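Bug #77: duplicate submission created two jobs. Keeping one. Sequence:
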Amino acid sequence: MKNYHCIFQILLVTIGLGVYFPILSNQFQLGWDDGWMLMNHYTREGFTWNNLRAMFTETWYGQYSPVNQLLYTLIACLFGFSPVAYHTYSLLLHLANACLVYFLIYRILKYTNRADEKTACIVSFFAGMLFCIHPLQIESVAWISASKVVLYSFFTLLAFLAYLKYVCTEKTGYYILTLAFFIFAFGSKEQSVVLPVSLILLDWVMKRNLKDADLWIEKLPFFLFAVFFGLFTLTMQSPELVQNWAGYTLMQRLVLACYAVVEYVVKLAFPVKLLYIYPFPMLPGEALPLRMLIYPVIVLVAGIGLFLYRKNQLLIFGVLFFLLNIALTLHIAPMSRVNIVADRYVYLPSVGLFFVGVWYAFSYMQTIIKKRLPWLYTLAVCYLLYFGVYAHQRTKVWYDSETLKTEMQELIEHNINAQEEMKNGGKK
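Kept job's structure:
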């Protein structure tokens, strides 16, 4: 079966290269933030003792990602400030992540005996392909300053795979490796602090006894690190921005969180009109638009549906994986961010929904084969082609700051014209 793994990995990489190769000719976002995120004094000063110490003990504009900064500095030492070098770095990381997603899903299915070899390979491949080519992933890969998202996901996926090996073999080396990957993941991006809870979720889907005291004792180092990392992260938030967005009441933030969850799910299923900025629907202190109240209702209905299917372990696992890994970006607690949602936040969480979606789609396809409905195969192929083509086109939107701003300017002009037409229509 190793040959099949190699074939699927080669296919994933080949398809990914076909979709993403335009980013290799993209430039820096100098009109935005590559200038201060990438071309800072840490990158310029190289590998000196004082510079290395500064990387790990200082924050830069509220950002703490020393592991990613180390790689920025290494690339600068080897290739200078070459856009193609940095874009190659992000692309290779993304392709590696697609392969890791393949192995993560394959091992979950095989270690739990939920699928035979053929089914496990096929489901893992298509889930990995969705992760690889989905248009929502473009921001994380094509935007150099977002490379820490791709990097923390890389170490998190490695941690999951090492942990699964530990669960199956009980070898201490894999446990230590999991802890090391967790530390590297946090050194890449603070969003990784939820990893210990993700490990509990893996325990559950692997059918380990959650009442076993030893299981919780083995998680203690992870939770201690998570608490330390979390407290450290809170000190990095910009007080001015946090205070500004704290102008939303708790009830408003809960409604906005429901809105964000629904938006992410819809964009994963039907990615259209993607942007690099999705502003809040109202400013702090303003009343919540009535249309926003539909989103808590949608979340409540979905929650009831999940409760009814709570015995379906893979379904619950995939949804909880998504929610857990996106929870910190939902603005329930005030954050120093101006976007209500952002494509990059769904990069790793999407794995859970892709897993669930492909698993049930594959099961449904078996029924289609028996009923001989070939047109549904055509529809599925067109759906995947749309993802690939749209993602390929969005890589060009990220060519430089001007192409990115042009997209937003066109949207603003469209919205202004639409609002004027609505006002004129109301007067008539």
